[in-house]
Write a structure and sequence with these properties.
The structure holds two protein chains of two kinds. By secondary structure, chain A is of the alpha+beta class. Chain A has seven helices and seven strands; from the N terminus they run βββαββααααββαα. Chain A folds into two domains: about 45 residues; about 170 residues, Up-down Bundle (Butyryl-CoA Dehydrogenase, subunit A, domain 3). In chain A, the strands form two sheets. A four-stranded antiparallel sheet of chain A has the order 5-4-7-6. In chain A, β4 and β5 form a beta hairpin. The chains are: A alpha+beta, B mainly alpha. At the A-B interface, β1, β3, α3, α4 and α5 of A face α1, β1, β2, β3 and β5 of B. β1 of chain A pairs antiparallel with β2 of chain B, so a sheet runs across the interface.
Amino acid sequence: MVSSGTSKEFISARDLGLVACRRCTKAWPISATVCARCGHKLQSRDPLSLQRVWALWLMGAICYIPANIYPMLRTQTLFQVDESTIIAGAVELAHHGSLGIAVIILFASVVIPLAKFWAVAYLAISVKTPSSVSMQRRQMLFEIVEYIGRWSMIDIFVVAILSALVQLKTLATINPGPASIFFALSVIFTMLSAQAFDSRLIWDAQAKKGDKKSDE
Amino acid sequence: MKDFAAFDVTTMLDDLIVCPQCDAVYRMNKPKNGERAVCQRCHKVLIAPRRNAGLHIIAVAFAVLFLIIGAAVFPFLTIDAAGNKNAVSILDAALAFSGGPMIFLSLATAGLIIFVPLMRVLLTLYVLVPIVLDRPAARFAIRAFRLSESLRPWSMAEIFAIGCAVALVKVAGLATVGFGPAFWMFGILVVLVIAQDSFMCKWSVWYRLEHPKNS
């Protein structure tokens, strides 16, 4: 593969007067609006990208609050009804001795979502203000966020399996609580928020630096 | 910038490839089978052709197709506690959220674990079978492949599989849990779906859809 310029300086499609298709990597003149190869919409930089990121981020954060306040599971056994929230359920599991599973659940439903909120917010802020973290690092952070975001759905699937399986008449039944719907919405909104982020914005700062150097 | 200054770039669009993640422009130098073209700046894999990839993907896709149908219909897990028995299929699990707004969750779960993977397999076959047979591309093949790519993050079969493991541990103390045939089908399915995604070189498919072999 022949790179453009020297090994350290890269040239972006926008600086060449081109716009790239993000779906199939083909280059077009900047005036093109639709990729003639794959039909994807072309936009050199989406001016609304960050607004969309923040709007979806906020929706996700709002849904995450009731997801932790309301019960996730409603367990009915012979003599009692238990309603446990996400965190209480994990703590209970740890008390019963399945520490590993408690850690998985806490990780998937608390640590990952919170880390994701932080990471998306950080990335969105970092493209507007000078950042000390290298672009490679930030790109990697973005890829991790995109990859790992889907895994938060694990708790919803656990609730689905348990509710379908444990229907043992009077002995024990498990039903989903209202938190499940909020949690699913929160995961979906944060996934959409990460997808709305245009990672090319991370690298535009480098292009600007390059211009300054060549001016001097 | 020096490389490009001498040319009018708009005349050489076919020779360029742009990294979708960081917008860096490269002059294309198609890698051989088994090699990979990687963005020098952000390390995204741009092209990764493999020998007979199309044929492998089609074979795997057929296997996935039958496994999805089987896994959805056959019993998945059985539970037994003090004479009370219950057997569920994956569809039962997906439809566990019932009543009021919960129905939305049922539809979403069913979609994420069955219908989106199923849809992706069908779209992949629709696009790739004519290409591999050296026939002209199917009608709407471009739109079909684009849809298949945009569905990729929403295909969550492998996450459901881990969810199963967690759920099993949770119930283990309460009752005896048995595995139905669908459980094993689903296990194989997850491995195949991951393999299929790693075989696929998206760029090569787009290229073939743009330059069909007319011979």
